[in-house]
């Protein structure tokens, strides 16, 4: 009691009874028996609290003094050696043994985390009816089945370890064991749907309360549930790095050299297969969530997609948020919607097949997010991180000016789209050059070498689109041309005064055709 009285008044002392109490993991439930069980355990904790003068002076709130997280042992392999043993090994051999020990230690940590996910999350939520068995199976998958898999590797490494703590050969063990990681195909493929279900269930107050209590407990190490569920995937991508590290510190005349190179090739093949399967699953997940406003929007290339090259949130010219999917053969713009508390994606405008897709990488300030061209507004109005996509054929009349959150995401989109259209670039470039003289009505009027017959044909073909709509659509639509060619196109425009007078005359008929 004297020690407690000497503590500063602002420092809380949390009794052991409250830290280890199961009441911290029990959410309020309707079931009477379970509720009484929780109250009984809470009464024990409260009696333990009464012994603490610090808690008597100030009420103990859950957020007032977080429990320090449990830390893992991070001792290096070399720190466990005696001085004589350490002096007998070369620096290269010590680093090699360190890398092997890191792999062994990582397997042990993984096994502990897989068991913890079952014991601290899955089983309590099932017993307390916080989630149904079906929901938990969907979220946790076959997590238990992977524990023996990693225990086998750990046992093999233990058998190969000599009394002095060194491992002579690890290559044959890995070559035999690594192909078994194909078992993770199903688990990794289900992760997207599992994460979506978990996020949905977090809206339930009881689930949220339970997960929060776990997060504040020492065993969680400040990791949330999804961090534990994602540990197997993060472990998979570490194997090539671990093997390369072992190989880097293995002498060239060591028998492990060729076997380790074979092991690296095996794990890279396994990861490639898992990524392929995961990509197909992710692709199908989003395809199933698409909603069509018009039957004309449906395209067999969407349903037949097996790969999703890029997807994410972008803004259109009006500042509205769109969710864009670049499948292997088609670009689909959508609007995120919620249906019965589930996320869905409503297809916006007509999807653009990759072979008909043109891309223009716009510079900051080229377009104002309202339709104005550069020079017609101040610096504060300049749009940044923008690019434009459209059909090669102007007949559909669709061009989308899109804005990314930052330059990094913009470059990601531009690179992905360029990669997708690369096989069709020659055809696209030829078609684009053919259409260059027709980019604007002004260029045709001021260039006698361009007949007006083409403009008339386009007008009759589009039937429902006014002349000004076509003019603006053609002027706004971008290309994959370089900056010099783009400057050449701009020189065909009429003087600004003449253009302003034309726009004033036709302002009543003007209609925005772009996104």
UniProtKB/TrEMBL annotation:
Its main location: cytoplasm. It is found in: Cytoplasm. Keywords: Cytoplasm, Guanine-nucleotide releasing factor. GO terms for biological process: intracellular signal transduction; positive regulation of Rho protein signal transduction. Residues 307-422 form the PH domain. Residues 437-515 are annotated as: Disordered. It comes from the Eukaryota. GO terms for molecular function: guanyl-nucleotide exchange factor activity. InterPro entries: DBL_dom_sf, DH_dom, Endocytic_GEF_Adapter, GDS_CDC24_CS, Net1_PH, PH-like_dom_sf, PH_domain, SOS1_NGEF_PH. The keyword Metal-binding does not apply. Residues 95-277 form the DH domain. Residues 503-515 have a biased composition (Basic and acidic residues). PROSITE patterns: DH_1 (PS00741), DH_2 (PS50010), PH_DOMAIN (PS50003). Residues 489-502 have a biased composition (Basic residues). GO terms for cellular component: cytoplasm. It holds the Pfam family RhoGEF. This is ARHG8 protein. It comes from Aegotheles bennettii.
């Amino acid at each position: 009691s004297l020690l407690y009285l000497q503590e500063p008044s602002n420092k809380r002392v949390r009794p052991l009874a409250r830290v280890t109490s199961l009441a911290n993991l029990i959410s309020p439930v309707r079931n009477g028996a379970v509720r009484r069980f929780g109250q009984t355990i809470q009464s024990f904790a409260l009696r333990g609290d009464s012994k603490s003068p610090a808690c008597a002076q100030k009420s103990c709130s859950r957020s007032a003094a977080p429990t320090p997280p449990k830390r893992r042992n991070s001792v290096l392999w070399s720190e466990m050696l005696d001085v004589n043993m350490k002096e007998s090994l070369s620096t290269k051999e010590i680093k090699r043994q360190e890398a092997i020990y890191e792999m062994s230690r990582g397997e042990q940590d993984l096994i502990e985390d897989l068991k913890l996910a079952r014991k601290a999350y899955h089983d309590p939520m099932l017993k307390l009816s916080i989630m149904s068995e079906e929901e938990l199976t969907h979220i946790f998958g076959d997590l238990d089945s992977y524990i023996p898999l990693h225990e086998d590797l750990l046992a093999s490494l233990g058998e190969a370890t000599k009394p002095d703590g060194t491992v002579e050969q690890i290559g044959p063990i890995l070559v035999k064991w690594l192909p078994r990681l194909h078992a993770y195909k199903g688990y990794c493929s289900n992760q997207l749907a599992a994460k979506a279900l978990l996020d949905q269930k977090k809206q339930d107050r009881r689930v949220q309360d339970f997960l929060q209590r776990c997060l504040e407990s020492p065993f969680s190490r400040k990791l949330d549930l999804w961090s534990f569920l994602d540990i197997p995937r993060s472990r998979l991508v570490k194997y090539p790095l671990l093997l390369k590290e072992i190989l880097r510190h293995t002498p060239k005349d060591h028998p492990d050299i060729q076997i380790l190179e074979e092991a690296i090739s095996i794990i890279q093949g396994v990861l490639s297969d898992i990524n392929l399967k995961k990509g197909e699953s992710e692709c199908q997940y989003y395809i199933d969530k698409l909603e069509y406003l018009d039957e004309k929007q449906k395209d067999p290339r969407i349903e037949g997609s097996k790969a999703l090259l890029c997807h994410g949130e972008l803004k259109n010219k009006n500042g509205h948020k769109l969710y864009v999917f670049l499948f292997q053969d088609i670009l689909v713009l959508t609007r995120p919607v919620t249906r019965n508390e589930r996320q869905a994606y409503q297809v916006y405008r007509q999807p653009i097949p990759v072979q008909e897709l043109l891309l223009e990488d716009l510079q900051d300030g080229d377009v104002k997010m309202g339709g104005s061209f550069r020079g017609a507004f101040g610096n504060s109005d300049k749009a940044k991180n923008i690019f434009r996509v459209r059909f090669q054929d102007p007949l559909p009349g669709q061009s989308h000016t899109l804005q990314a959150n930052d330059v990094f995401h913009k470059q990601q989109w531009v690179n992905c789209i360029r990669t997708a259209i690369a096989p069709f670039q020659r055809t696209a470039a030829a078609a684009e050059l053919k259409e260059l003289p027709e980019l604007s009505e002004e260029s045709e009027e001021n260039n006698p070498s361009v007949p007006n017959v083409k403009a008339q044909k386009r007008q009759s073909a589009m039937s429902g689109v006014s002349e000004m709509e076509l003019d603006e659509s053609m002027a706004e639509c971008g290309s994959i041309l370089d900056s010099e060619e783009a400057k050449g196109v701009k020189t065909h425009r009429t003087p600004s005064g003449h253009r302003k007078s034309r726009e004033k005359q036709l302002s009543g008929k003007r209609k925005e055709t772009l996104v």
